[in-house]
Amino acid sequence: MVENSVSISVILPAYNARRYIDEALRSVLAQTRADFECLVIDDGSTDDTAVLVGRHAASDSRLRLLRLEHGGIVGALNCAIAAARGPLLARMDADDICLPRRFERQAQFLQEHPECVAAGSWVMLTDPYGCDVQEVHPSVEHEPIEADLLNANGWAMFHPTVMMRRDAVVKAGSYRRQYQWSEDIDLFLRLAEIGRLSNLPEVLLRYRQHFASVNRTRRNLQMHINRQLLDETYRRRGLGPLPGHLPVVYPTMTPFEMARGWCWEAMKRHNWPVARRHAIAAMRHRPFKPDSWKLAYRSLWHD
């Protein structure tokens, strides 16, 4: 691929991502719009993530593997931005799945809306096994998106759905290490001071939920960082003092509650093998809870 043919640079950080990265890369390489490069930044993985990525790169020249010592997602993302050749940056995570027309639809939208600097989309939440759970429809217009971001709502724009103009990202200062784990909210708020934000009103990504998700493993740290970055944002914009209380914008669920919810969703779809996996997980977490036995009975009763 010659450099001039690259319109979109996919930036995909990966750390010990062997479980899901094959599926993620297949979904990227199967896009209907082909004028892209995919930059996978292996952030010092200790598993065989780099080997799996290398197999894809060997058969598709659009994929490039960049390897770093482990330093966190912000360093990996900024490395990809520096190496990107396309005027558009498409974020992607190693455990999610792009729908086939994602790049086509977002690039077309940005071409038709030059005032927009970043465009996300609606998502389908999935469980760790890829079973659909629920569609989530964030606001599509700039004003409610920005208002949600100013309340630390990390789902105002789902980070791995976003396609951004590279020049706007660079002008905004790219990702900032001091706000790692909430680096997306920080960047989007700074982009909102350059141009408009939007979400396309269609599902373009299957967004995987699992126990290792950052918003579950580092939630307390994220809450602290959110206050710091919003305090800076309020000062920068002259909005006055930061409100004393920020709303909880996405629920904190225990592993039992997550397994229970995923089990019921799988049963609704008659996906009994997945339902049984979640029922067993629920039993492990709360073996004496009646709901655990109810899930086990309901899921095992069907063949």
How does this model look, in words?
The chain is an alpha/beta fold. It folds into 2 domains: 3-237, Alpha-Beta Complex (Spore Coat Polysaccharide Biosynthesis Protein SpsA, Chain A), CATH 3.90.550.10; 255-300, no CATH class. It has 12 helices and 9 strands. The chain has helices at 21-29, 49-59, 73-83, 102-112, 142-149, 166-172, 183-191, 214-217, 219-237, 255-268, 272-285, 290-300; strands at residues 8-14, 36-43, 63-68, 88-91, 97-98, 116-126, 132-136, 163-165, 196-208. Strands 1, 2, 3, 4, 5, 6, 7, 8 and 9 form a 9-stranded mixed beta sheet that branches. Strand 2, helix 2 and strand 3 form a beta-alpha-beta unit. Helix 11 runs antiparallel to helix 12. The mean pLDDT is 91.
Brief descriptors of the model:
303 residues, Spore Coat Polysaccharide Biosynthesis Protein SpsA, Chain A, 9 strands, 19% strand
CATH architecture of the largest domain: Alpha-Beta Complex
CATH T-level topology of the largest domain: Spore Coat Polysaccharide Biosynthesis Protein SpsA, Chain A
Rg estimate, integer Å? 20 Å
The percent range for strand residues is: 15-25%
- From the spread of the alpha carbons, the general shape counts as globular
- Overall number of domains: 2
In DSSP terms, counting alpha (H) and pi (I) runs of 4 or more, how many helices? 12
Which structural class fits the helix and strand makeup?
alpha/beta
H and E string? EHEHEHEEHEEHEHHEHHHHH
Question: Mind summarizing the main beta sheet?
Answer: 9 strands, mixed
The CATH homologous superfamily of the largest domain is named Spore Coat Polysaccharide Biosynthesis Protein SpsA, Chain A
Q: Give the mean pLDDT.
A: 91
